[in-house]
Write a structure and sequence with these properties.
Layout lengths: L2 E3 L2 E3 L5 E5 L6 H14 L3 E3 L20 H11 L3 E4 L4 H5 L6 E4 L7 H8 L5 E4 L6 H12 L6 E5 L15 H10 L4 E3 L1 H5 L5 H11 L3 E5 L17 H16 L10
Parallel strand pairs: 3-4, 3-10, 4-5, 5-6, 6-7, 7-8, 8-9, 9-10
Antiparallel strand pairs: 1-2
Helix pairs in contact: 1-2, 1-9, 4-5, 8-9
């Protein structure tokens, strides 16, 4: 199955890279990041408008303040945007702003939100909950597809295990298994899976080799100054190097980067 976000088709013969900042912090930050990731071969832009954070004191995102700058940057770069929504009310608020809704790990079991997204036509990127079985993840997608919206992309972003060396444990078993149980496209989030920017490229290559349809990666102009998830974000240079190596990995499996933009 193929799901189309803007002009980009995910789930076809090519491998799609979605990249951008964890949180949208300013017009300049989003613009320079969008230009950089597009130049390196990313087909879609990611950027958080609202962020669900463990600490109530942490940066929660710009919210509606980000809307006008998103419109401007999408027009300038031609990139479509994927962004997380955390509340049913945000579905309508962002309908004219984002090109695909992202459901974060904490909301995978938010069935009211999933049912609402089932009433929409806009694509949904559904992240796996950090303690969810693969079958629970697939059944969560059913709430959207059975509601009338077939445009769902599953996203493996690592699960919580006893291991503490990395942020989460990437379950490539789950990616391969889910491929046999559903026809939905499946992408991997290496940034959240490992939480350490230096390890993100290798995780990305592994995802490509395992048969994922793409990756969603965090990139920031100055990760040390990021307002959220800086330690896992790639610099522009590191992202560019990773993309060049990724093309070599994909070539070994007779696949290419999706360059639909």
């Amino acid at each position: 199955m193929v799901v189309q976000i803007g002009k980009v088709k995910i789930g076809g013969p090519n491998f799609t890279v979605i990249a951008g900042p964890c949180s949208i912090e300013s017009e300049q930050q989003l613009l320079t990041t969008a230009q950089a990731v597009k130049s390196s071969g990313a087909a879609l832009l990611r950027g958080g408008i609202w962020k669900m954070r463990t600490s109530a004191a942490a940066f929660q995102g710009l919210g509606a303040e980000a809307f006008p700058l998103i419109k401007k940057i999408k027009e300038q770069t031609g990139l479509s945007l994927i962004s997380e929504i955390t509340d049913i009310r945000q579905v309508e608020q962002t309908f004219e702003i984002v090109d695909a809704y992202q459901v974060g790990a904490r909301n995978m079991h938010n069935y009211s939100l999933l049912k609402e997204l089932g009433q929409q036509s806009k694509p949904v990127v559904l992240k796996r909950g950090f303690s969810a079985y693969v079958d629970e993840w697939i059944k969560a997608a059913d709430y959207i597809t059975m509601g009338g919206n077939p445009n769902v992309i599953l996203c493996e972003r690592g699960i919580r295990t006893f291991e503490t060396a990395t942020r989460n444990t990437l379950d490539l078993n789950g990616v391969v298994y889910a491929k046999t149980k559903t026809n939905l496209p499946i992408i991997v989030d290496p940034s959240h899976a490992v939480g350490i920017s230096a390890l993100v490229p290798q995780i990305s290559y592994a995802a490509a080799a395992a048969g994922a349809d793409g990756i969603i990666v965090e990139v920031h102009p100055k990760p040390s100054e990021a307002l959220s998830d800086g330690p896992q974000a790639l610099t522009f240079d590191k992202f560019n190097i990773m993309m060049k190596q990724l093309e070599k990995v994909l070539a070994a499996f007779d696949k290419k980067l999706n360059t639909s933009v």
